[in-house]
Amino acid sequence: MSAPVQQLPREIEAEKSILAAALVDPSTAPTIADLLAPEDFYVTDHQHIMGAIFALMVDGRATDLSTLMEELQAVGHMENGMGAYLGKLLEWPSATDIPATAGRIKIAAARRAIISAATRLAQSARVETDIDDIRRKTEDLFSSVELALDDSTCGWKPSTRPPTAARMRITGEELDSAELTPKCIVQSYLYGDTATLAAPGGTGKTSTAIYEKVCIILRRPLYGLAVATPGWCLFVTAEDSREIIIARLREIMDAMDLTAEERQTVMDRFAVWDVTGEQVRLIRAVDGNVVLTNLADDIIRAYRDDPPVLVTFDPAISFGAGESFVNDNEQGLVTAARRIVRGFAKACCVRYITHTGKAPAREGRLDQYTSRGGSALSDGARMVAVLQPWKPSDSRHPPAGCVETPGATISILARPKLSYAAPQPLIWIRRSGWSFEYFTETKVSIEERERALFDQIERFLASEVRQGHRHNKTSLETALPDLKRADVRTAIEQLMARGRIIEQDLPPEERQGRRKTYLSVLAEYGGMEDK
């Protein structure tokens, strides 16, 4: 008894769905043409239809049904009921996920190519007598199999077929409608693009990110910044469990004193995806190269009908291919984020939470390159935020009103990189338990800063003189520990040059060694008149 004939791999229903999408909505044709070639289709009529679509695009012509039928007629493919078949395709369900459907067709085509290559290789081994000829044919066939596999779009493999010049021409409509910035989520802070938030461990960056999401969901001003696009937020956590994230969210909502309705809104629109302990990555290493996994596309497919306004991955290191690749790894994360942003029509911000390096943490740096690792993540992100804890010994001083209180911590939120907004001042955050307060640093000129320093030193010296404390230059420098000695020294020299600080003779009983004088302030500047 002969073995049953096995059919070649094919995805006929997927082929119909793809062509139905192109016929019903001609705007999908360029995307389909980027993913599939006519020879990828199993059914001959489907090859002819796809070939006609491709020819129309190369010529820069429309791909509507009537033009398509004219093209098929011109090349002799309208016989044998093609018109009726096109009508049936119009009634066939269109593909809703074109990349995934095209991927199924590509994989079936790759499998057929492998079977064909294996058949030809077996035939060559049977009839050829020259081993060198067999070896050459084997190498050629293996190359064709490799190409078929590379072009099968198995999840992460991108299309590398360059679009036609006609497709890349800029239209007048594009020129008129092009926007300089993507959709704004939070004014001067978050936009529909790639972002990062870097902070040392223990700074509270995860809790800060949770607080920010609550404000975005409820459209409450965030650090005094307007929320332009409220919406639901996705928090993908690989570090803290879902339970911990939800517990922190509860405490933050309690501290914000939300109404029952507001609490329910946050609960409905704050999505937590817990992947702790799982190998869920946006990129992976394959033969020394960093490539995308299916995760970015899976997120797009899952939420395409209702995209989130903010997707956060915490921490970034858990979603990469490993720090051994450094900048390649970071660039891969940027590419994955951009893929999600593009999949959601640039209406979603994709943000990575990262740790700072040891040196930037110790130094309290606020520049865009504070995150651990290389520079590619900061270079590729369009928005970089840095959160650093503040200590009283730091050279920076909080703005008015931002004072230490028992049990409170103060942090500085910098925005060193904002591609879609002008440079912004520092935001000072005072956190008491789960409550967040903000203070914005006022920008002052060099002259204003100098004048304030002069006035501060002058007032201090006048107060000291009234209390009977007589300073020379050295003792005055050390009496102001909150100011840099070099700044105090320069200020004293400037004040003396302007006559606002003067030297007066010490009383005879206070003169010691070479010290004969002390610093004083003229009466008109708050000093005491010399008696």
CATH architectural category of the largest domain: 3-Layer(aba) Sandwich
Going across the major beta sheet, what is the strand order?
5-4-8-9-3-10-11-12-13
Largest sheet: 9 strands, mixed
Low-confidence stretches: 1-5, 153-159, 524-531
Indicate the CATH topology of the largest domain.
Answer: Rossmann fold
Specify the CATH homologous superfamily of the largest domain.
P-loop containing nucleotide triphosphate hydrolases
Count of helical segments? 19
Integer-rounded radius of gyration: 34 Å
Please name the defining characteristics of this protein:
disordered N terminus, primosome, 531 residues, DNA helicase activity, single chain, DNA_helicase_DnaB-like_N, alpha/beta, Arc Repressor Mutant, subunit A, DNAb Helicase, Chain A, nine-stranded mixed sheet, 3 domains, Rossmann fold
Description:
It is a single chain. This protein has 531 residues and is α/β, with parallel strands linked by helices. Helix content is 44%, strand content 15%. The strands form four sheets. A nine-stranded mixed β-sheet has the order 5-4-8-9-3-10-11-12-13. Helix 6 (98-127) packs antiparallel against helix 7 (131-150), helix 10 (205-218) packs across helix 11 and helix 13 runs parallel beside helix 14. The radius of gyration is 34 Å and the shape is elongated. The N and C termini lie far apart (130 Å). 31% of the residues are buried. Mean pLDDT is 85; it is low at 1-5, 153-159 and 524-531.
